[in-house]
Specification:
It is a single chain. It is globular, with a radius of gyration of 22 Å. With 376 residues, the protein is mainly beta. It has five helices and 27 strands. The strands form six sheets. Strands 1, 2, 3, 4 and 27 form a five-stranded antiparallel β-sheet that branches. This is F-box domain-containing protein. InterPro entries: F-box-assoc_dom_typ3 (IPR013187), F-box-assoc_interact_dom (IPR017451), F-box-like_dom_sf (IPR036047), F-box_dom (IPR001810), SCF_F-box_component (IPR050796).
Length: 376
């Protein structure tokens, strides 16, 4: 007679291995099964294991704007390896208004980092962190870096989002701001840098002369890597890195050939990369070269993709080099530079896409400031 083994009798490491293959929705329900399972699923080591599990596939999050409702939102697309099966929508759109409870639009989305997004409301200057898998949402406290006179107006800003790679693994938000003085008709100098730390739920402000927000470009998706968040200079002649360890900004040169072309900064196979191309013109073929920074100041061209025809613009990049492209027909494609093939994510008849991201489900909680050092 075969003796049955209860799941509770299995070794903890085996239970952890089995449960790490489950989707987030199931794991949130399983936390209610027993106290032991609750503790296991809340364990930082388990959260890391789940995030890195090969059975936690990469999906695609598209940030778009709906003309009929005049609201922006997310749509999640599930990735399929089977060529005979089309990508399918696996969740409904998550309207920002449902999350922030505000009537204003969100214009800034940064991430994802370990499944977390940074959201910013341009009109009301609300900042928040959001785990789209668990629906956990954390508004950040107001940051008022200046005793601003009435003549000061916030006219330029950039965000960064990362964590300090130490034993605490504390998340940080970087907010770079430039103010215009209407009385003097000139920019306020220096630039104000505000740093939010999750463990203290507070901001710290300091002044910076090396860089100003109006001279750097917003990154295409997540550009946090190994303790640094990166932006490219608008002229493509350099990139700036913010060191999360000591809150310092470093400057790294790029090849002179980048300056005469259009560029986007993103990740490529766990490296910082520049996606370089001629300005996209409808009706003209466009190729995109992927250059990887192998060490500070040294760049190497890894992949040439394309040529593409009838592309309006690129909307973002996945960590493994996937390129999100908006076609003239309002169709959104994702191109794999290794398989040399496009996948259609869908058409938006009632709006248009703003950004696209590679995304993995995550159990990372915003209620804790540390959960061990996860790898992006």
């Amino acid at each position: 007679m075969v003796q049955k083994t209860n799941f509770s009798d299995l070794p903890e490491d085996l239970v952890m291995e089995i449960l790490s293959r489950f989707p987030v929705k199931c794991l949130l329900q399983l936390k209610c099964v027993s106290k032991n399972w609750y503790v296991l699923i809340e364990n930082p080591i388990f959260i890391q294991k789940h995030l890195q599990n090969i059975n936690n596939p990469t999906s695609y999050f598209v940030h778009h704007y709906f003309l009929d409702t005049m609201k922006s939102g997310f749509t999640l697309f599930q990735y399929h390896d089977d060529d005979d099966e089309q990508n399918k929508l696996v969740s409904k759109s998550h309207l920002y208004q449902d999350v922030l409870k505000t009537s204003a639009h969100l214009w800034e989305v940064v991430g994802p980092l370990n499944g977390l997004f940074l959201l910013y409301n341009d009109q009301e200057q609300d900042v928040a962190l959001w785990n789209a898998s668990t629906k956990e949402f954390k508004p950040l406290p107001m940051s008022q870096p200046l005793n601003c006179p009435n003549s000061f107006s916030l006219c330029s800003y950039k965000f960064g989002f990362g964590f300090e790679p130490s034993n605490t693994g504390d998340y940080k938000v970087v907010w770079m701001r430039d103010y215009w003085d209407m009385y003097s008709e000139d920019w306020h100098s220096p630039t104000i840098i505000s740093i939010y730390t999750l463990s203290t739920n507070s901001w710290r402000n300091f002044e910076e002369f090396k860089v100003c927000s109006r001279d750097v470009a917003k990154s295409s998706g997540n550009t946090y890597l190994n303790g640094f968040y990166y932006w490219r200079a608008c002229k493509n002649d350099k990139i700036f890195g913010f060191d999360m360890r000591n809150d310092k900004i470093v400057e790294i040169q790029t090849p002179k050939s980048f300056v005469s072309k259009q560029g986007d900064l993103s990740l490529f196979n766990d490296s910082i990369a520049m996606y370089i191309y001629e300005p996209i013109i409808v009706g003209r073929e466009t190729s995109i070269d992927i250059w990887v920074m192998e060490k500070d100041g040294y760049w190497a061209k890894k992949v040439r993709t394309g040529p593409f025809l009838n592309i309006k613009r690129s909307l973002g990049y996945g960590n493994n080099g996937e390129i999100f492209l908006e076609v003239v027909t309002c169709q959104l494609d994702i191109f794999d530079p290794f398989l040399k093939k496009n996948r259609v994510l869908g058409q938006h008849k009632n709006g248009y896409s703003l950004q696209a991201f590679g995304y993995k489900e995550s159990l990372v909680s915003l209620k804790k400031s540390s959960f061990c050092n996860l790898v992006c």
